[in-house]
Structure formats: structure tokens, C-alpha cells
Design goal:
Distance between the termini: 35 Å
Radius of gyration: 16 Å
Oligomer: single chain
Strand content: 25-35%
Order of helices and strands: HEHHEEHEEHEEEEH
Number of strands: 9
Strand order of the largest sheet: 1-2-9-4-7
Largest sheet: 5 strands, antiparallel
């Protein structure tokens, strides 16, 4: 039961699902935005379906993607597309605006956490300094952010689950410097 409550994502699922791969990750709208920031020669660094089942979807701790990767790569381009409505009630993402312009902080792995996170005191300081945005989305809406942006998703305590597709794009020049590409 504890493991089911923490079930959060299907890693690399998107590249194995032709519908998701062709309609979203290789779809013209997402690629056009990624190319605007990275240029025409891009690679997919990460892909996943994120799951927040009704009443059991766990939190995703506050983090900077760059703080988790620990590979020094600060240029990647992130997106997250809602397949179900993402609301405050069912654990929509939260961003700290302008936090992408601050340094990458060391992330701490607390017992029972799914991955490292920004220390709570740092999160409180950043929210006090920059505020907090709840990213509510309708199915098909997408949000794009810099890999240094602080973001979080609370648990889903509602009766409505939510599913989203995510990806991170990079470039061949960046791939040569990191262990995340094969």
C-alpha cells in the first residue's frame, strides 16, 4: 500500500508510446518552442508520464531539475502537458517565479522522499522573496520552464486523479558533456 501511494511516474514511457511520442514530444507546437530556446538541433534528455491518482497521489518535493541532475547542465528546456485537468485540489504544480535566476542549491534527500529536495528554509525564503504561482491547466495546456526554476507538486487529496506528460530537451553539444545520454 505504501509503494502504491508513492507511485508517481512512468519513466521513458513516452518514447515507447507512438501516440504520445508523435503527438506531443515530436509534435510541432512543443518542438517549435524548444527550438526557439535551444536551436534546431535538439535531443530528448528525459521523458515521463506523471501520475497523481485520486486520494493517493503523493507530493513531488520542491526541487530544481538541475539540482537533481548534478551534471552542471543549466541550458535544458522543460515542458509539462496536462492530460487531465491540473487544479489546486488535485495537486497542480507550483512555481516560485524568477527563482530560475538564482543559484542551483544543494538538494537534500530526506528519509522516505522520492528524490532530493531544496531545503525547506530555502523554499520559505524564496517564496517570501518572489511569491508563489499555482499552475492550473486544462487538458492539452502545457507549461515550459528553465531547469533551475524551483517547482513542487503537493499530494492529491481530491477525488480526481491527474496525468501529465513531461519532457526535457537538450542539445548534442550538451549531451557530449553529460552521462545522461547514451
Amino acid at each position: 500500500a505504501a509503494r502504491a501511494a508513492r507511485f508517481r511516474k512512468l519513466g521513458d514511457f513516452c518514447v515507447k508510446s507512438p501516440l504520445i511520442w508523435h503527438a506531443i514530444h515530436c509534435g510541432e507546437p512543443v518542438l517549435r518552442i524548444a527550438q526557439r530556446f535551444l536551436g534546431d538541433d535538439i535531443l530528448l534528455k528525459f521523458n515521463s508520464c506523471f501520475l497523481k491518482p485520486a486520494r493517493t497521489g503523493s507530493a513531488t518535493p520542491w526541487h530544481q531539475d538541475n539540482g537533481l541532475w548534478r551534471d552542471g547542465e543549466v541550458e535544458p528546456f522543460n515542458f509539462w502537458m496536462a492530460l487531465d485537468p491540473a487544479t489546486k485540489a488535485n495537486g497542480c504544480m507550483q512555481f516560485i517565479p524568477r527563482s530560475h535566476a538564482t543559484p542551483i542549491v544543494p538538494h537534500v534527500l530526506f528519509p522516505g522522499a522520492p528524490h532530493g529536495e531544496v531545503p525547506p528554509a530555502t523554499v520559505r525564503e524564496m517564496v517570501g522573496r518572489f511569491g508563489l504561482d499555482h499552475i492550473e491547466l486544462e487538458p492539452g495546456d502545457a507549461v515550459f520552464w528553465h531547469s533551475s526554476l524551483y517547482h513542487y507538486s503537493p499530494p492529491n487529496t481530491s477525488d480526481q486523479g491527474r496525468i501529465a506528460v513531461a519532457g526535457v530537451y537538450s542539445t548534442p553539444a550538451l549531451a557530449d558533456r553529460t552521462r545522461y545520454f547514451k
